[in-house]
Specification:
Hpre_diP_synt_I, globular, 6 helices, mainly alpha, transmembrane helix, transmembrane
């Protein structure tokens, strides 16, 4: 199988896994009175994709996952909020990975990604309802982003550790 076809297979697997995690996450009740609060399970795949495929292809993974999950499990506004959060999160994590030269752990990168995701969603919500008072809501979401980002970072780190023992990504560089 040539490198482009193999890359497409891996890309498709990442989109599928992120979509499955989106569905699983939609089934998990969050026992908090904060609307929109989630664990961020699909971000595990975003991090692994970013580390293995790089940001351009991970951008495709994020967009495809948000659109498909929105059409299947949400609606128009959920797509807009998720896309804003997902894109800002990807942008921040990519910048940290690019400029950190491996100085930051995957857990820290994940926490910053979770905070950025919440910030992106709150910015869009502030625009939609035309008030900046939602930025106070962001403080609560930021506090939640720390443990959820920690969990996602640990999970992504362990998944990467296991994936490095395989040869699945060897063909991507050919």
């Amino acid at each position: 199988m040539n490198s482009k076809a193999y890359r497409l297979v891996i890309l498709s697997l990442f989109v599928s896994m992120a979509l499955i995690l989106s569905y699983v996450e939609s089934l998990i009740p969050v026992p908090l009175p904060i609307p929109g609060a989630k664990i961020g399970l699909p971000n595990i795949i975003t991090l692994v994709s970013l580390l293995t495929l790089g940001w351009p292809l991970t951008l495709l993974v994020v967009i495809a996952r948000v659109l498909l999950a929105g059409f299947m499990f949400g609606g128009g506004f959920s797509i807009i909020y998720s896309l804003a959060g997902g894109l800002l999160s990807l942008f921040i994590m990519t910048l940290i990975l690019h400029f950190s030269r491996n100085d930051f752990s995957l857990i820290i990168i994940s926490i910053f990604g979770a905070i950025a995701h919440n910030l992106g969603q709150v910015i869009v919500a502030s625009i939609v309802v035309q008030t900046s008072s939602l930025m106070l809501y962001f403080l609560f979401l930021m506090l939640l982003a720390i443990p959820t980002g920690f969990f996602v970072g640990i999970t992504a780190r362990e998944l990467m550790r296991l994936l490095k023992k395989t040869t699945i990504f060897n063909r991507l560089n050919n």
